[in-house]
């Protein structure tokens, strides 16, 4: 196994090598990486569903506390991504994928036990929410690792597939957990049901299933990573070698843009159900909540594929224009708060449709920005080599471009993920201070306009600094 586990020769840009063996190895690693990443996203959004049902299980939390539980995994996950982005190059993609996937067993199991006891403290649940961020952290290391396996011409599609189907974990959790908690999936081994009264009738839920149902799948995925994936010897590098990205201006510019795409995707995914329950309490939101993340995840590979053909900057520019318009549409569909404190008017179908537009644009942008990143860093490194640079210098610059692209992909994903914390918190603060989400939405519009300008000025306009 040791010989197969570590690839000492890896030349994806060599057509002969790619056709002979590289392509099949790369695809195998991608196919194992995807379910590992999917489960990571599942764990990262568990609280977006659990928070809607936890008071029915005997707890008594305020809306502000519930918004915090849904937002906190994204805060810890974004912070973990900063460190995770450098781990595949430090320890090897196969080893780190196995370890980071196995870590998901901790929050999944702990949550399953904790929600069965209404005396569990809010502090304990906050700790579990922080640990759920381990799943979000996995995105940075997964993207950094997969980027090494594919040639430049296929990176957009490969990154789009890995991230897009990984992002499906958000929709999968919001689709399956509401069903699973209505069933005694594990019989006596899973614990007793929690009972509550609704509209005069007694109902039962098994909220612990939200965590327990993923435990066997996580164990299988970790084993698959250990026995089926590979480490690439040439991809190993120290933190110091990767840290050069912090001196690159375009690293920080792309962080800003990725907050606008992925930050919006994961932030809206975490906040949409609770926001809908607040604004349109009569709507059975869990019947619809999974659709936005589903569309955003499935269309991410499309964003990468289109960007491979037309350029990531052009697609990203259109995405941010669409997101600004989408938020304006949401504003037009909101109910109004009367003097009596009651909501009236508004359009739920329009509100839902505009959020689907936002999820679609965010998904496309997730794919297009990840096409931009390797192009940008490879170009920067190659520009540092003089025109008369010899073949060795060109090869060294190409290698630095790959290293920087991988490190930047992970780090940018870390900063972008903070949107998953700030968006739910922004809605919560806006509702608390003004009675509605309008203030937060106006801030989002201003942010998307800044992303439009940045994409155009640096990457999309004629004679841009780094056309990509």
Report on this structure.
It is a single chain. The protein is mainly alpha-helical and 468 residues long. The chain has one domain: Growth Hormone, Chain: A. Helix content is 72%, strand content 4%. It contains 19 helices and six strands.
Give the radius of gyration: 22 Å
Helical/strand content category: mainly alpha
How many structural domains can be distinguished in the coordinates? 1
Spell out the CATH superfamily: MFS general substrate transporter like domains
Q: What global shape is seen?
A: globular
Name of the CATH architecture: Up-down Bundle
Helix content: over 70%
What percentage of the residues does DSSP assign to strands (E)?
under 5%
Question: Mean pLDDT across all residues, rounded?
Answer: 89
CATH hierarchy, class: Mainly Alpha
**Low-confidence parts, pLDDT < 50 over ≥5 residues?**
none
What is the straight-line distance between the termini? 40 Å
Element-level helix/strand string? HEHHHHHHHHEEHHEHHHHEEHHHH
- How many individual helices? 19
Say what the CATH topology is.
Growth Hormone, Chain: A
Largest sheet: number of strands, sense, barrel closure: 2 strands, parallel
């Amino acid at each position: 196994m040791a010989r197969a586990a570590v690839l000492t020769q890896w030349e994806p840009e060599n057509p002969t090598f790619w056709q002979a063996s590289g392509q099949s190895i790369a695809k195998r690693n991608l196919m194992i990486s995807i379910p590992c990443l999917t489960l990571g996203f599942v764990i990262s959004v568990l609280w977006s569903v659990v928070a809607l049902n936890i008071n029915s299980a005997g707890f008594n939390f305020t809306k502000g506390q519930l918004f915090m539980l849904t937002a906190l995994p994204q805060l810890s996950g974004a912070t973990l991504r900063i460190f995770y982005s450098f781990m595949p190059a430090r320890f090897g993609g196969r080893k780190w994928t196995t370890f980071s996937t196995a870590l998901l067993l901790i929050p999944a199991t702990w949550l399953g036990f904790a929600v069965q006891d209404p005396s569990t403290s809010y502090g304990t649940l906050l700790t579990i929410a922080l640990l759920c961020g381990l799943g979000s952290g996995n995105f940075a290391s997964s993207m950094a690792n997969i980027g090494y396996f594919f040639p430049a011409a296929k990176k957009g599609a490969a990154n789009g597939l890995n991230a897009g189907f990984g992002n499906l974990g958000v929709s999968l959790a919001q689709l399956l957990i509401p069903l699973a908690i209505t069933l005694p999936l594990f019989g006596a081994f899973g614990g007793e049901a929690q009972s509550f009264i609704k509209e005069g009738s007694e109902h039962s839920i098994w909220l612990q299933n939200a965590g327990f149902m993923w435990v066997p799948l996580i164990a299988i995925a970790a084993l698959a990573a250990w026995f089926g994936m590979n480490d690439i010897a040439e991809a190993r590098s120290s933190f110091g070698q990767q840290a050069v990205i912090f001196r690159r201006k375009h690293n920080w510019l792309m962080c800003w843009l990725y907050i606008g795409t992925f930050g919006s995707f994961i932030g809206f995914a975490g906040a949409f159900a609770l926001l809908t329950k607040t604004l349109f309490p009569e709507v059975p939101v869990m019947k619809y909540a999974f659709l936005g993340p589903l569309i955003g995840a499935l269309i991410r590979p499309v964003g990468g594929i289109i960007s491979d053909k037309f350029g990531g900057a052009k697609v990203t520019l259109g995405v941010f224009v669409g997101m600004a318009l989408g938020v304006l549409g949401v504003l037009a569909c909101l109910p109004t708060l009367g003097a009596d404190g009651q909501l009236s008017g508004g359009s739920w179908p329009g509100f839902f449709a505009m959020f689907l537009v936002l999820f679609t644009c965010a998904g496309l942008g997730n794919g297009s920005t990840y096409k931009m990143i390797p192009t940008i860093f490879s170009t920067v490194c190659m520009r540092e080599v003089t025109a008369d640079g010899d073949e060795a210098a060109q090869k060294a610059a190409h290698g630095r471009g790959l290293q920087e692209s991988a490190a930047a992909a992970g780090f940018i994903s870390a900063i972008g993920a903070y949107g998953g914390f700030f968006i739910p918190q922004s809605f919560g603060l806006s509702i608390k201070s003004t009675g509605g989400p309008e203030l937060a939405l106006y801030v989002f519009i201003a942010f998307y306009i800044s992303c439009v300008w940045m994409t155009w000025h640096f990457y999309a306009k004629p004679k841009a600094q780094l056309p990509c």
